[in-house]
Structures are given as structure tokens and as C-alpha cells.
Uridine nucleosidase Urh1
Amino acid sequence: MADSRVPVWLDCDPGHDDVFAILLAAYHPSIRLLGISTVWGNASLEKTTQNACSILTAISKSTSVPVFAGAAHALYRPPMHAPTDIHGESGLDGTNLLPKPVITAANHHPGLNYQSNTAEEAVDAAAAALRSEPPGSAWVVATGSFTNVASLFTKYPELVGHVRGLSLMGGAIGGGFTRAVMGYVDGVPRVGNWTQYAEFNVLADPEAAQSIFGDEELAAKTTLIPLDLTHQVLATQEVRGLLLHGNTATTTTTKGYSQGKTELRTMLVELLMFFAKTYSDVFGITEGPPLHDPLAVAAVLAGLSSEIPFYDYDPADTGKTRERYEVSVITKGTYDEARAGARTGQTVAKLLPPGQEGVRIPRGLDIPMFWKVIEECVERADAANKAGLPFMDLN
Ligand code: BDR
Ligand code: CA
């Protein structure tokens, strides 16, 4: 029987929220995860790659999902110091339960560390995996800087026509695009997170982002998940309780949760607790941390019966006219200038006339449904761990 699942290549920089992107891509029943490439960002490439391998180990997917280490810095910029105040030294601080990875990246060369020139091998691996899928079927999802993805479509431009879509977590629109709370730094309300104007993944490699949005054909296949959307999806205490205890066991505790607590759930919630503290300390968002990255994975389900509905129209528009945008990125300025107040890395989105193709930027989604789906993915991962199937291909 033909496999009707959506093939996905995931490029990421784990990263607390990237962990949930991996979980969703690996365990959603309508997604077939082809492979993972890593990029520097939330930590060095060495660490984000190690983290990706560790997470796959933690969810019994280490032998069915290959990992390729990608770019260690931006296309045309010097290495950027990883934001340790957001994800900690390791990129995944906050838990002692991360397993030692039972795999290394497929392009890890013994004796060399991941800082060596691996980017091209990761891009080639992604291209081969995508090409082996039928035209118009596979998605590329990026939840770190867009360096690897930009290199992929530059080196293999024919893939622009071949893929079904590109889903990116990044950017910040501002100007009341949504009602999400973006947070305050030094008492000043924010649009971006890494600077006043810029979101981290876009600022990390603005030229890479611009090369994607500047390609009309690719832009028309692109979904952008900006902070304005992700800041609506907070891992509140209630959500953390759901993820810690699960929802399906028959016995419930006095708190109303079923008793499903496992090592994996404990680890995931410890990661969320660390991320919650970051968001509270740095941005003054105390309700819970926004879980940015898995939303870019969820967006590939559009049009399927298992879809998590995303709303790509203005809530004030009773006609629900589908919106599409022309997006550009401010590339002028160095990282230091951006930190000092320049608009480097800002995403500028211009609404296109109705019917014209462009970047899809949802303004909302079915949030309870999103958390339900994440919880179900944890259940599946728990079941695989319990069955002790790390060496069977569950994909
Ligand atoms: C993005 O930056 C990183 O901190 C997160 O993993 C996410 O991809 C949010 O701006
Ligand atoms: Ca990320």
C-alpha cells in the first residue's frame, strides 16, 4: 500500500523547543521524517548535533532517522556567539536525563570535530532524500538559522520546483499582527527577541533568509512561523502538567492527571522548566515559554484530515480572505551593530493583493489541538521506549 505520510526533512539547532519539533516530526502519524540536518545557533554545531543525536536516542528513533551535521556559521558572516542566556551552555541545559547518544552524525569523520566543513555533505544528503520522494510531496522544515536550507536551494535550484513546501520558524512581524505578548527587555516592549527588531533564526543568517524570501517560486511555497504566532503557544503550568503525567492512563491523581510519568516526560518537562525560567528572566513572560519550533512542523499538515488548523487570515475579516505576503530581510549591519540598535535581521512583511501568491504567515492556530497532538506524540515515544525497540525501524 502506498505510504501517504508527508515526507519531511528537518533542519534544526536543538535547543529546547527544537526538541519538540523533532518529537512531532518523528512521531506524528501523518509525517515520515526522512532525516535531520543540524546547524549552529542555540549552541555550537558540535553541541546542536550531539543534542539531536541524544534526543533521537531518548525517543527510540536513533536508528531510523539519520543525522547530518551542517553549517557551523552563517553564509557570509563570522561565527556568532551562541546565546547561552537562552538555552544554556549545552544548548539543552536544565536536565540530567538526556541520554548519551547511541549514534553520531552520519557525516561525522573520526578524528575531526563537527566544526570541519560538513555543511556541503548535509545539503547533499537532504537533496538526495528529497529527490527520492515524488514531486510535490516532500517538505523542508527549518527551525534554526536558514543557512543549510539556503545552501540547499542555491546548490540544487531544481528542488524548488520539486518540493511541496518549506516551513520556517523565524522572523517577527510586529505592528499588531497578532495579539501575542512579545515581552519586555529593560522595560521596552519587543518586536524581535534577539534584538529589538530581529528574531534569532533570521538574525543569525539574514543573507540566507533573504535568499529564500527573494526567490519568488520558493517564497510562494513557504510558510513562515514568526514570534507573533509562537508567542501565543505558551507551555503553561497546565500544559507542563499534561506533558508530565499524560492523558490516557486509566488512573487519575488527585490533581486530575493520569499517572503516566516516565523518564522521557520528566526530561521534557525539565527542559520546559529551564526554558520557562529563561523567558521569565529575560523577557518577563511568566505564564510559560513559547514553544516556537514544533509549530513549523505542525504547519506541514495543512490540507490533511490530521491537520492542526492554522489561520492565515485577519481575524477581523469575516470573509476570512487568505493572506499572502512579500517578505524581505534587512541584511545591512553586523551582529554587533544589531545588538547596538540597528535593524539588521528584521523581517519586513508586505500584504499582497488577494489571490497573489507569496509567503503564508498564519496569525493563529488551534492551540488546544496542538498540545493534544504533542501529548499523543509523547505517548507514542513512551510506548516505543517501553517496548525497548531502539534497534527496530519504527519509521
Ligand atoms: C528561535 O530561536 C531559538 O532560540 C529557538 O530554538 C527558535 O528556533 C526563536 O527565536
Ligand atoms: Ca531552534
In short: The first helix runs from residue 16 to 27.
